[in-house]
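Researcher: Please generate the 3D structure of the following complex. Treat every line as part of one assembly.
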Amino acid sequence: MSLFRNFATGLRSLFRKNQVDRELNEEVGAYLEMEAAEKMKQGMSRKDALRAVRLERGGLELAKEVVRSGNWESFVETCWQDLHVGLRMLRKNPGFAAVAVLTLALGIGANTAIFSVVDSVLLRPASYAKPSELVDINEVGPETAAGAINEVSPGDFIEWHKQAQAFQGMAAYQRWEFHALTGNGEPDEVWAVPVTTNLFSVLGVNTIRGRTFAENETQAVVLSYQYWETHFSSDPNIIGKALALDGKSYTVLGVAPADFEFPRANTQIWVPVTFSAAESADHKDRRLSVIARLKSGVTLRQAQAVMDIVSRRLAAQFPKTNAGWSAPVSRFKGPVAEDVLRTAILALLGAVTFVLLIVGANVASMLLARGTTRQGEMAIRAALGAGRLGLIRQLVVESVLLAGAGGVGGLLLARWGLRMMVSLVPKYNLVETESVHHISMNLTAFAFTAALSLMTGAAVGLLPALWVSNLNLSESLKEHGRTSAAGAGGSRLQRVLVVSEVALALVLLVGAGLMIQSFEHLETAPTGFNPDHLLTVRVPLMSYKYSRPQSADFYREVLDRIQAIPGVKSVGMANNLPFTGFHLSLDFPAPPNSPGGSGPVLVAGRSVSPGYFRAMQIPLISGRDFTEAENQRDAPCVRIVNRTMARLYWPGEDPVGKQLPGACPNDGPATVVGQVADSKQDSVDSEPHPELYEPYAQHPFASFLVTLIIRTASNPTGAAAAVRDAVRQVDSDQPVIQMRTMQDVVSESIWRQHVSASMLGLFAAIALVLSAVGIYGVLSYSVSRRKHEIGIRSALGATRRDILRMVVGEGLLLTLIGVGVGVAVALGLTRLLTGLLYGVRPRDPLTFVALALLLIIVALVAVYVPARRATSVDPMVALRYE
Amino acid sequence: MSDKPSDLVQGTLDMLILKTLALEPTHGYGISMRIEQMSKGVFRLNAGSLFLAIQRLERDGLIDGEWKPTENNRRARYYTLTAKGRKRLDSETREWGRQVAAIGRILEAS
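Model: Done. Output below.
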């Protein structure tokens, strides 16, 4: 009640300020008048009476001030006034304000952008309930090579599910599955993952619309939020609608939450998988991934003990398929960002922190310089009765104002920066484990900016504010404008700030320099094939329409038609394209006397068409390419090996004509007919694995990654339309997707390095400019403060050269100290970039020297301007200036 | 006791103002005069602290103010005790009595 009354009265005096003020005036005035009247009754003159009252009771203005100080609205008002004064001060110095706001905007913008990335890529909280209870269960057999993805057979999964008592629930899913979605318009593919119907309940995730699968439900799908959003425009009535997958009709059951990504960020649809009686008894076809939820209180070790017992029981029961197989249990990691990306993002996070520190140092140094020149103003204010607290508040309000404007600017810059960054990320990334494309500025990032701007403002404002307000009144009034003790302390602080700025800038420059060089090395690194004039396009075949012999015929016809297109020099096909982050790995028995021990070897397997090597321009070392006659289902089993594989299995010998036992679908031996040069499979910065090529029609392969490679005489994109037509002439419903040049494939495969090099380069450039501005600011301030001294020096005979040398020397000294500190810090920090660097060492001396020189040169330019100004000081003017 | 006016014990001014108004509604100067007379000149208020206290009491709803003409044809704000103010005065008077008695006993004990 009284709180409300207080608030209402307060509001009244805020908004009807004049009237309230008049009333207070009248009331206090009346009081003083009455007292005076009393005194006049006792015989005083009116003048004396008023004077006596003022002495005894205090003057009208003082009384009013006291009364006002007692209410909350006056605090609001003072702040408002401070704000007004602050704005006026900033308007009076538009140059200062612009530089400070821009500086802050850069720092805050960079930090907000990178924070958004960190938040949505690295911190992304698991969307599953109690993620610590979730475990992955694999199957490892005697022949499993280290590093292979271990999967589980449906029979084993069903037995585990029945027998293992340590789990609340156990679900299985298939990592990869493709469906063609033929709906309206262009036939398009959709990434669908078959899961057991209990997957959502094991993960503890609910749909935001509709429901998840019921037990034994089939022909139904759950959509990912992103797929629902992009392909169905967030249709609110989607539940119950039909969806055609692989020519069959499915019912939409529900939509998953926006942050649910399983097993990968690009999964668009989940379909239920059920096992036929034959599949349930199949212990050999290991193709499932298994995730389980531990019963509460059960440890990983206990779960492992249970699984060991189950595995032994299965080995006894099915010795043919399960002898020697075990089932390791490990914590479920979820869709985590891969190492390169994580390191890259952390490097960027470090870089923006440096930028922010530089920004802070710069703005603090600017405010400090300005604070010194405003010493006189502060002294006058203090003399007029402003308290120390009031002065500090005024200065802090000013810097918060700057930071606020900087925050708004930063938000805009961050938006722009994020958009630029996302545009550097390729759209087609088959194993995109990151939700990089979903990055947007989020509420957290906005709150972060707001807090950051305020904190920066307060921190930056407080330092000079404390010092300025700590001044000795009469000293400052007297010495205003000349060197004072406080001034010396301030400029010492400034020097420290400049040295740290230079050091930070150097660290950033070196980091960026290394990353950019590394990226350039990657761009020009040999791949083993010739990516120029190559067009690639994915032609995934719908398995429900084509049996395997039919699909071989389909591709043969498509290849023939493309070969006939004018301007096409050669054409090939592979079941997956190098550099797309995906290749088939085969466990191969180790060669006899292998140096790597007797464990199985991981060999990359690729099914190709005759002509693939010609189209890719992978040189043949010995033997020959596959013939069309060999590219038949029942043709004799032949293989081509790469150089690494040949050296591993037949060191010093020509592999052509050798036998590879167990390499054929019927476990029979294959004959090596050719040896080709190595080409890189995964990325530019990885070494080639042993690789085994087979004619595509000889071996069953997953058709969803099939890619055609077309070598053209001129610009490869010119052939795009003709290639699309050629495929459509064979089958008009056939999806033709991801048409792009091999150059793009290669450069997109190093997008992480591209993004981090570009962003680091940008941040380093910002740091360089900011530290130059910092050096410039400190020296101009120092010169203007020493005008008097410089005047005396030149009056005493110092030449312009002497003065130039003095000022430049001062700047150079600061820069050199900063460079020294920066080199030391960089030597320690660049080690952390090791995982990102290719073809350049983290302590590359040339990079260090070159960038230190660059920084010194830029610093000298920044120093030269104030130095010139110093030489033009007229001794007469300078001496009379006081 | 020195002949200079004393400072009021912290927090007692509010009570004194309430007490004054309990006798009769009056304006700021009236309050000030009455406190001075009743304390025989020991407590002299300056304008600032008086009106600060009045503002506080009014906002807390313990007193009500109203503009009225004075005897010599000026306008002044006359303050009346509210029911809430009277209750507060009673409780504060009782509390004050208890404290004074207690302090007295402590001082006499030595």
